[in-house]
From TrEMBL:
Belongs to the peptidase T1A family. Residues 6-28 form the Proteasome alpha-type subunits domain. The keyword Nucleus applies. It comes from Paramecium sonneborni. Keywords: Cytoplasm, Nucleus, Proteasome. One of its GO terms (biological process) is ubiquitin-dependent protein catabolic process. PROSITE patterns: PROTEASOME_ALPHA_1, PROTEASOME_ALPHA_2. This is Proteasome subunit alpha type.
C-alpha cells in the first residue's frame, strides 16, 4: 500500500503499526544541529553546535535557560522549542509562586512529555518537531533528560541528539564511566571532545559556533563567554592526547 495514504495526519495507523507524522517529527530532530549533555555527581554540562543560515546571518541560539536550576538544549525546529520553553518557564514560575521552591525537574519533564504526546492524538494538530535535552538540579540530585516528539522521555548520564550525534554517543560509551566523579573542567572538555567527533571534517570548533552551558549544585545555570570557550577549545588537543594515552 502507498505510504502517503497514512501520513496525512498523526491519528491514522499504517498497516505496519506506525504513525508516520510522528516519525517525520523524529526525523526533524535527527536533522537538527547536534547538542549534547553529560553530568557528574555535582554538575551537568550542555554543549551545542550553532549554525547560521548564511554568512550574512547570526548564529542560531541552541540553549535556553528555564530557571536558575534548569536549562534546555534543542535539536530540531527552533520555533517549536520556543513554545515548549515558554511553557516550561511558566510552569516554573507558577510552582515557585505556589510552593516557594524550585520545580522538581522530573515532574516538569513529565509535563512536557505529556504535552508532546497530546499532539499525537488529534488530527487537527501535529507533533512538535523538536527534541530537548533538559539539564536540572533538585533535592533528588543532578539530572539530564531527553524528550522526544512522540511523548517519550528518558534520563541519561550523557546523551547527544541531532545530526551526526551517533559519533558523540560512541565517544560517550568509551568514557561515561569516568563522568560520575569528573570535575567541571573535565566534563566541559569531554563535552567539547564529543562535539568535535560529530562535526564535518572541514569544520572547526570556535567560540562563535559553540555554545556551552553549565549548572552545578552550587552554581546557577550560566553560559560560558567567548573568552572562556576559546580557552577550553585550546586545551582540547592536550586533553585528547592525555585521554588517548589513558585509553591505551
Amino acid at each position: 500500500m502507498l505510504k502517503h495514504l497514512y501520513d496525512t495526519d498523526c491519528v491514522t495507523w499504517s498497516p505496519q503499526g506506525k504513525l508516520f507524522q510522528v516519525e517525520y517529527a523524529m526525523e526533524a530532530v535527527k536533522q537538527g544541529s547536534i547538542c549534547l549533555g553529560l553530568k557528574s555527581n555535582e554538575n551537568v554540562v550542555l554543549c551545542s553546535l550553532k549554525r547560521q543560515p548564511s554568512e550574512l546571518a547570526g548564529y542560531q541560539e541552541k540553549q535556553f535557560k528555564i530557571d536558575d536550576h534548569m536549562a534546555i538544549a534543542i535539536a530540531g525546529l527552533t520555533a517549536d522549542a520556543r513554545v515548549l520553553c515558554k511553557y516550561m518557564r511558566t510552569e516554573c514560575l507558577e510552582y515557585k509562586y505556589t510552593y516557594e521552591s524550585h520545580h522538581p525537574v522530573g515532574r516538569l519533564v513529565f509535563k512536557v512529555a505529556e504535552k508532546s504526546q497530546h499532539k499525537t492524538q488529534s488530527g487537527a494538530k501535529r507533533p512538535y518537531g523538536v527534541g530537548l535535552l533538559v539539564a536540572g538540579i533538585d533535592p533528588n540530585g543532578v539530572h539530564l533528560f531527553e524528550t522526544c516528539p512522540s511523548g517519550n522521555y528518558y534520563e541519561y548520564k550523557c546523551q547527544a541528539i541531532g545530526s551526526r550525534s551517533q559519533a558523540a554517543r560512541t565517544y560517550f560509551e568509551s568514557w561515561f564511566h569516568l563522568f560520575e566523579k569528573s570535575t567541571l573542567e573535565q566534563l566541559i572538555l569531554h563535552g567539547l571532545s564529543a562535539l568535535k567527533k560529530a562535526i564535518m571534517e572541514d569544520e572547526e570548533l570556535n567560540e562563535k559556533n559553540v555554545e556551552v552551558g553549565i549548572l552545578g549544585k552550587n552554581q546557577k545555570f550560566i553560559h560560558l563567554n567567548a573568552q572562556e570557550l576559546k580557552e577550553y577549545i585550546q586545551k582540547l588537543e592536550t586533553f585528547n592526547a592525555n585521554t588517548q594515552i589513558q585509553q591505551e
